Amino acid sequence: MVRHFLKDDDVTPVEQAAILNLALQMKQAPYAHRPFDGPKTVALIFDKTSTRTRVSFAVGVADLGGVPLIIDSATSQMGGKESVADTAKVLGRQVAQIVWRTYAHSGLEEMAANSGVPVINSLSDDYHPCQILADLLTIKEHKGDLAGLKIAYVGDASNNMANSYLLGCATAGMHISVAGPANYLPAHGVVAHAEAIAAKTGGSVSVYGEPTAAIMDADVVVTDTWISMGQESEKEQRMQDFAGYTVDANLMKRAKSNAIFMHCLPAYRGYEVSAEVIDGPQSVIWDEAENRLHAQKALMSWLSQQV
Ligand code: CP
Ligand code: NVA
């Protein structure tokens, strides 16, 4: 059966662990796995801007013996001109996998239902599961076993990163706590879903209004931009709403003294995080950014074996 990776719990806890272990192997031997030998082509479609995702998927496909085909949707027939279903059928007959960064998550579901090849979500309005795989890999490298660790997310707890942390960290058996202003908390359905996963993995889920409560004794502290792609018109309001939610040195003191700090990037110093924290000794953001490559190579390789 063709498998897709549209959100974090599209893989089981055992499968997630296998992908992360494969990523560690691939990091040691970057050119030893050749699932796209042929070479096969992987379509990388972008409806939104990107630096890390574009580079890491393009390099990753090449490392795996394939050819990356980057499609800027603004210069293709996709969108208003041709349906997602028709696009999926055309791509599915020619490429090995489809990686898509888009707005509405439902588009990815339509692509997956019609493509006949694995579809990977490289960010939607609702989830960013490839980033969480890279983050889990980074935590594993710095902290060892994921199960039982506490991760705290502070900031826009209603965005794609927060949703993916909730599902992905619960899948890994971690204790995930999120904090955001009242209008920026995760949807009840996502929290309930994460709680159901955590009940099976030994993890837990907590939602707070106050950052100090969420961050207490955390092993890992994460944040993300207050203004995600597509929300630019809300900038003024959001700047007011998120006042007090900056991850700064004072807040970091509430976490464990050996806590690591992560951020998916791009970062806005002085807003969601202070320069002192993101550029300081607890920050592992460059390992995290590099790990996009290794985690996604493992994901693509694993998906290629499921078909
Ligand atoms: N973290 C991340 O997805 O970065 P890009 O937007 O640069 O791809
Ligand atoms: N929440 C951010 C993540 C960027 C990688 C956004 O969607 O813009």
Chart the SSEs and their pairings.
Layout: H1 13-28, E1 41-46, H2 52-63, E2 67-72, H3 84-92, E3 97-101, H4 105-115, E4 119-121, H5 129-143, E5 150-154, H6 160-171, E6 175-179, H7 188-201, E7 204-208, H8 211-215, E8 220-223, H9 235-241, H10 249-252, E9 260-263, H11 275-278, H12 285-306
Parallel strand pairs: 1-2, 1-3, 3-4, 5-6, 5-8, 6-7, 8-9
Instruction: Give the biggest beta sheet.
Output: 5 strands, parallel
Residues in β-strands, percent: 5-15%
Instruction: Return residue spans where pLDDT drops below 50 for at least 5 consecutive residues.
Output: none
Structural class: alpha/beta
Distinct small molecules: phosphoric acid mono(formamide)ester, norvaline
Number of helices: 12
Q: Largest beta sheet: what is the strand line-up?
A: 7-6-5-8-9
Give the SSE order as H and E letters: HEHEHEHEHEHEHEHEHHEHH
Mean pLDDT: 98
Number of strands: 9
Radius of gyration: 19 Å
Oligomer: single chain
The end-to-end distance, rounded to whole angstroms, is: 5 Å
